[in-house]
Design brief:
- It is a single chain.
- By secondary structure, the chain is mainly alpha-helical.
- Helix content is about 70%, strand content about 5%.
- The protein has one domain.
- It has a two-stranded antiparallel ribbon with strand order 1-2.
- The longest helix has about 35 residues.
């Protein structure tokens, strides 16, 4: 792969992520106009069952869209994974960029949001998904560039353990407050220490495999 192909791959995967961010933001603009005309606040309002079902399937469809683009853009499994996390991270960041442009929301990165609905609703401050998205963008670009140089990304057992630990910790921080997500209660204070620990585990997991990849090039 020459340099132009590498740049083009990163560019087009990024453009896809940006446009997905706008599509999701536009759906949220409509939902908030209907359910939160005075502004989005907790406690959450009850949605009709069919609206919730549509939202769940829309989110699942979004993941499949990212998988499809990554499968088309990448040559090998880990390059496809890198394209997936790159598109995912850019999608997440630009979702909030477009909400800021269209709704002037969030007012800060500490504003609470509903992040995802599968398998239970996820909630947390905007800074939480944005911090993870930025890590995904950096990791995705580095893996794609290394693959371009002929280096194979091969996670170690330790990398898998650290990444799995980070995923469990972060997901718990998003889903443990079932009172706020399922019973229309005000959310408990967010566990920022869990986010920080999860992000650190993600970073450590990636760096272990990334530097090992360089040694075996």
């Amino acid at each position: 792969m020459n340099k132009n192909n590498l740049t083009g791959k990163i560019l087009w995967v990024s453009i896809f992520g940006i446009t997905m961010g706008f599509f999701e933001a536009s759906v949220v603009v409509y939902l908030r106009a209907i359910y939160y005309p005075d502004g989005f606040v907790f406690p959450l309002k009850l949605f009709r069952d069919y609206i919730i079902a549509v939202e769940v399937f829309r989110e699942a469809a979004s993941i499949f869209m990212l998988v499809a683009v990554a499968a088309l853009a990448g040559r090998r499994i880990w390059e496809r994974f890198a394209c997936f996390i790159l598109a995912f991270g850019i999608w997440d960041v630009f979702y909030y960029v477009f909400l800021k442009i269209t709704l002037d929301w969030p007012s800060s990165l500490l504003e609470w949001d509903v992040l995802f609905l599968i398998p239970l609703p996820w909630i947390g401050p905007v800074i939480a998904p944005v911090s993870i998205a930025l890590l995904m963008i950096v990791a995705g670009i580095l893996i794609i560039c290394s693959s371009h140089k002929g280096h194979d990304f091969r996670p170690t057992i330790m990398s898998w353990v650290l990444a799995l630990g980070g995923i469990i910790i972060v997901l718990y921080s998003f889903m443990y407050d079932t009172g706020a997500t399922l019973h229309q209660q005000l959310p408990k204070p967010y566990r920022y220490e869990l986010l920080i620990l999860g992000d650190l585990l993600f970073i450590a997991s990636f760096l272990i495999s990334y530097f090992k990849m360089g040694k075996h090039a």
